[in-house]
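seq as requested:
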Amino acid sequence: MGNPITWFEIIGPDPEKTAAFYSELFGWHTDAIEGGYITLDTHAGRGMNGGITTPQGQAANRSIFYAEAPDLQPLLDKAGSLGGRTVMPVTEIPDIVTFAVFADPWGNHIGLTKGDGSGPPVSAGDNPPIDWVEIGCAEPKKAWDFYRELFGWTIEGDMSGEDGAPVHGGFDTGASVGARGGIGSSPDGEPRVDIYAAVDDLAKYLDRAAGLGGSVVMPAMKVDEETEIAMFTDPQGGTFGLYGSAH
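struct tokens:
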């Protein structure tokens, strides 16, 4: 089994307003803790929970996810040996979390969190879960090798990029908890990490996001015969993805 993805963060200038937006949009439960950090429990019964915070030195992206491992320093060292670099060394917040952040060779910031692989529990409920993440960069095929080697993830459904098509491969961590995802070409070649919620009706949630002060940046579009995706920005400027079954 590879390292599971068990936590995500939405990063923006005003965590309280951001929390209010996502709570209203998805029904997620939020809780402010010491230091201005806000935790999210999706009450989706699956996927992963997360947090909302202000931009820190370790996160140039608007979103970040965390892969879980029992010992973080060996993973940081391995990432460095594969061309990455440590952005935040292993840091312990007593009785709360031990974490670290590295940059992959293309500039994406990826988090690590200490745990036994089970992740923080997601409460029961039927709200939209967070169970998909996307890593974008200029050299996705090389990125597949990097993340296979670092985390032991498997890549499936690889697309070759023939005839100008974007290169994309879906990855599976092999864990029964948390999120799966994809690694592909970013539209502008710049690094980016996107977090996706699974919803039953993309148009409904895009309209709801716009009504709450967000902006639609990509209307629903098919990516294969079974799946469609969309994206919006929240009122604080963070980009967020939706996916669901194609109609």
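The longest strand covers residues 85-93.
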